[in-house]
């Protein structure tokens, strides 16, 4: 049997992502929503399945209205690249550079400006502190970058992938006035 090699990754809707260039045939919100909804945060080391899409929805709820679309899509590159845990990203700076390039493609597609990132990063840390508390009960060690960050008061109500995808798509539509074709 001959081995077939490709230089692209197929997306849910049949688009192609070329990580070596990087290039995306057509950035599709359904590919992003699907990819994020079916990937577990923390490399799957959570008590229950918890998606990147749900994380993004929480972050979106914590920022001012003018930053909500950027917050919703702050991890959108992970729909194409996968999520890499922070200690590995530190070891692989080329991956972070690739992630930045893919984020720039997505930002250009949706007219997002990530330059006002501080409020999104703060919301991301609040979500992270909450997720650590609620979803990783055996992770009792200190995470220095969470020093001074208070988790949300409520407990996370975990969604399944299908629900997270639909809520992500609904949030995108509400923020942009566009549906899945965008």
- What string, H for helix and E for strand, traces the elements in order? EEEHHHHHHHH
Tell me about the largest β-sheet: 3 strands, antiparallel
What does the radius of gyration come to? 16 Å
Helical proportion?
40-55%
Uncertain runs with pLDDT below 50, 5 residues or more?
none
- Can you give the mean pLDDT? 93
**Beta content:** under 5%
Choose one word for the global shape.
globular
Distance between the termini: 40 Å
- Side by side, the strands of the main sheet go 1-2-3
Structural class by sheet pairing and helices: mainly alpha
Protein described:
The chain is mainly alpha-helical and 182 residues long. It has eight helices and three strands; from the N terminus they run βββαααααααα. It has helices at residues 29-37, 52-61, 68-72, 78-81, 86-91, 93-110, 118-135, 161-176, and strands spanning 9-10, 16-18, 23-24. A three-stranded antiparallel beta sheet has the order 1-2-3, with no helix packed on it. Helix 1 runs antiparallel to helix 8 (161-176), helix 2 crosses helix 7 and helix 2 (52-61) packs parallel to helix 8 (161-176). The radius of gyration is 16 Å and the shape is globular.
